[in-house]
Amino acid sequence: MVVPRRGFLTLGLLALLGTATLAHAEPASIVVASTTSTEQSGLFKHILPAFEAKTGIAVKVVALGTGQALDAARRGDADVVLVHDRPAEDAFVAQGFAKARFDVMYNDFVLVGPKSDPAGAKGTDITAALTKIAAAKAPFVSRGDRSGTHSAELRSWKEAGIDLPAVKGDWYRDVGQGMGPALNTASALNAYILADRGTWLSFKNRGDLAILVEGDKRLFNPYGVMLVNPDKHPTVKAKEGQAFIDWLVSPEGQASIAAYRIGGEQLFFPSATARTP
Amino acid sequence: MAGITLTDIVLVLNRTTILDGLSLAIPPGGITALVGPNGAGKSATLRVIDGLLAPNSGSLTVQAKRRAFVFQKPALIRASAAANVALGLAALGLPRTERRGRVAAALARVGLAHRAHDPATRFSGGEQQRLALARAWAARPDLLLLDEPTANLDPGATDLVEALVAEMAAEGTKVVLVSHNLAQVARLAADVIVLAQGRAVEHGPTRATLLSPRTPQARAYLDGELPWSSLAAAS
Amino acid sequence: MTDTIRETFARLATLDRDVVAIAWLSLRVSLSAVTIGLLLGIPLGAVLAVARFPGRGALVGLLNAFMGLPPVIVGLVLYLVLSRSGPFGSLGLLFTPTAMVAAQAVLATPLVAALTRQVIADAEDHLGEQLRSLGLSAPRRAGVLIYDTRFSLVTAALASFGRAISEIGAVLVVGGNIDGHTRTMTTAISLETQKGDLSLALALGVVLIALVVTVNAVAALLRGHAVRAYG
């Protein structure tokens, strides 16, 4: 016969096999919607193997901005969220998408900018620094992606008494991307940028940038973890998800977070003492 | 037993009238040639007889259990010679052993048995046309339609194809041949139909029709075929 | 710049098993997607080339336009469809390799179908009358034409493979770029770029290009061999 029916049949079977084997990858797993800062800083790669070895539960981290991560969880596409925007997290709990929020860790934001510091922003006061940058119209890169870092940046402008929409100009670059791409842009433009310390420490393409403002109490950056409410989305793997949260806030999980360092510098500080239901 | 009757056939393609009230009766048995200038409707007539083109009006009777068509360009697929011949049997629903036997016999008949497994697309022009004949013959047609089958072939290859066609006709297959090669028509055909402008203008025994056409249209066409005219004048 | 390039080749030597796993996943996902694309696209293209029915012209135009479907839009639509809150949420396919295969198959199918239609239409010009004269049914004619053009269809397969393995918009959105699970070459390259590790990103890029070149070379070899054998 001229038409190779058997050939097509084989192809079809191969395709089915291919997708079938892809579908049955792991036994127990949870999806954690988290932020680009935790993923890109390398924290998860450091802490997850211990949890997975202990429980046999695979943790699949989807790194998004805090706002997007919470949205994905609202749609039921994640079992656990680990993010850093306290007001948004509280709203998430208040709307019933999670029953409780737990403190996990914190780090801090730093103002990064050109070593030459044309706006003279260097110091320990973030509001003073932002005021000078706005006055000098020095190039500033904003995440602009509804992430926790973006929220913190907008809060800081507000606290500095600056009406951003009014003074915004060519100097203010809203890139709408993750921390890494935003840092790449800042590096290319030699611009100021608010970054989380973790991503900054693991960021390699720094160019002429350096930390100019750090240690301001207002730059405190707490991370919270929440199990998506199984009453809202029955598909949520509550048992496994809760096991992950329990481990994160346990002494073992907290020690693992504290042990993650880049170039000898600690990126995240455990904070799982206070429980906030 | 393969008589063909066309009555008042009209065929319009893309708003051009190709056949304009064509009527003809092709007798069963032997080889009948269709000749005429380009655009007279020869190829279209063959396609109407084969059912490839549906006429807009007119009636058509084809008394043939099985038809086969060989085109000017042998339409071969990228496969072995044997697979190409087998293609002619695909629609017949024959058992596998019978198919194999027929393919082998058809290839042997056209002298290509030794090349059964060679890629057909790499055959010479003459071999390709013989393969097309084998494909046609494998289906055991009682009506064989040939549309300028040797137009692209050299004289040697033409001789081989002509010999095969003559053999098949001698065995009882009715052959309708479209050809511009009037010497070939004279060698093969028992009767000739001259077409002009979508109509049959003359139909008669080959020699008489070619040498002394009765209608002005047939005369105009045959006079234009210079080689033939000069040969006729010389003889 | 030269530093980055020098470093890139140094990094190539030290690429670890993670990279092999990522490359393997990319290959599996894209090859599966292309296989589905061929199974759907070739018959679709062949039918559009051989059959005559009302609306065929519009369908062909649509197909040609869909060759340029933006991956990120495909990803987004599939995300909404596969999301737990979407119509197929119960399948639990979001953030799985299967979802990535589906997304890339959506990208590959119109490309295969459009290229197939063109190739088969050309073959139909040359063979169609003969096949109809032989009394072959329409599906059978399509089958013979597909067989006849199989070497040209390899090109359609390679084009859709190239589109699948090099796209990032769709796999990123429906796959989620999960480490060790749905991270492909393109999402890994993007991630390393975001982390500012440009030499590692470039090293991964070299691996991706090598992968594409290898697949094309293997296909070219097989095709050359088949053409020599079967004309």
UniProtKB/TrEMBL annotation, chain A:
<dbReference type="Pfam" id="PF12849">
    <property type="entry name" value="PBP_like_2"/>
</dbReference>
<keyword id="KW-0732">Signal</keyword>
<dbReference type="InterPro" id="IPR052738">
    <property type="entry name" value="ABC-Tungstate_binding"/>
</dbReference>
<feature type="domain" description="PBP">
    <location>
        <begin position="24"/>
        <end position="252"/>
    </location>
</feature>
<feature type="signal peptide">
    <location>
        <begin position="1"/>
        <end position="25"/>
    </location>
</feature>
<dbReference type="InterPro" id="IPR024370">
    <property type="entry name" value="PBP_domain"/>
</dbReference>
<protein>
    <submittedName>
        <fullName>Tungstate transport system substrate-binding protein</fullName>
    </submittedName>
</protein>
TrEMBL record, chain B:
<dbReference type="InterPro" id="IPR027417">
    <property type="entry name" value="P-loop_NTPase"/>
</dbReference>
<feature type="domain" description="ABC transporter">
    <location>
        <begin position="4"/>
        <end position="222"/>
    </location>
</feature>
<dbReference type="GO" id="GO:0005524">
    <property type="term" value="F:ATP binding"/>
</dbReference>
<dbReference type="InterPro" id="IPR017871">
    <property type="entry name" value="ABC_transporter-like_CS"/>
</dbReference>
<keyword id="KW-0067">ATP-binding</keyword>
<dbReference type="GO" id="GO:0005886">
    <property type="term" value="C:plasma membrane"/>
</dbReference>
<keyword id="KW-0547">Nucleotide-binding</keyword>
<dbReference type="InterPro" id="IPR015854">
    <property type="entry name" value="ABC_transpr_LolD-like"/>
</dbReference>
<dbReference type="InterPro" id="IPR003593">
    <property type="entry name" value="AAA+_ATPase"/>
</dbReference>
<dbReference type="InterPro" id="IPR003439">
    <property type="entry name" value="ABC_transporter-like_ATP-bd"/>
</dbReference>
<protein>
    <submittedName>
        <fullName>Phosphate ABC transporter ATP-binding protein, PhoT family</fullName>
    </submittedName>
</protein>
<comment type="similarity">
    <text>Belongs to the ABC transporter superfamily.</text>
</comment>
<dbReference type="GO" id="GO:0016887">
    <property type="term" value="F:ATP hydrolysis activity"/>
</dbReference>
<dbReference type="GO" id="GO:0022857">
    <property type="term" value="F:transmembrane transporter activity"/>
</dbReference>
<dbReference type="Pfam" id="PF00005">
    <property type="entry name" value="ABC_tran"/>
</dbReference>
TrEMBL record, chain C:
<feature type="transmembrane region" description="Helical">
    <location>
        <begin position="94"/>
        <end position="115"/>
    </location>
</feature>
<comment type="similarity">
    <text>Belongs to the binding-protein-dependent transport system permease family.</text>
</comment>
<dbReference type="GO" id="GO:0005886">
    <property type="term" value="C:plasma membrane"/>
</dbReference>
<protein>
    <submittedName>
        <fullName>Tungstate transport system permease protein</fullName>
    </submittedName>
</protein>
<dbReference type="GO" id="GO:0055085">
    <property type="term" value="P:transmembrane transport"/>
</dbReference>
<dbReference type="InterPro" id="IPR000515">
    <property type="entry name" value="MetI-like"/>
</dbReference>
<dbReference type="InterPro" id="IPR049783">
    <property type="entry name" value="ABC_perm_TupB-like"/>
</dbReference>
<keyword id="KW-0472">Membrane</keyword>
<keyword id="KW-1133">Transmembrane helix</keyword>
<feature type="transmembrane region" description="Helical">
    <location>
        <begin position="29"/>
        <end position="51"/>
    </location>
</feature>
<dbReference type="InterPro" id="IPR035906">
    <property type="entry name" value="MetI-like_sf"/>
</dbReference>
<feature type="domain" description="ABC transmembrane type-1">
    <location>
        <begin position="23"/>
        <end position="219"/>
    </location>
</feature>
<keyword id="KW-0812">Transmembrane</keyword>
<feature type="transmembrane region" description="Helical">
    <location>
        <begin position="58"/>
        <end position="82"/>
    </location>
</feature>
<feature type="transmembrane region" description="Helical">
    <location>
        <begin position="198"/>
        <end position="222"/>
    </location>
</feature>
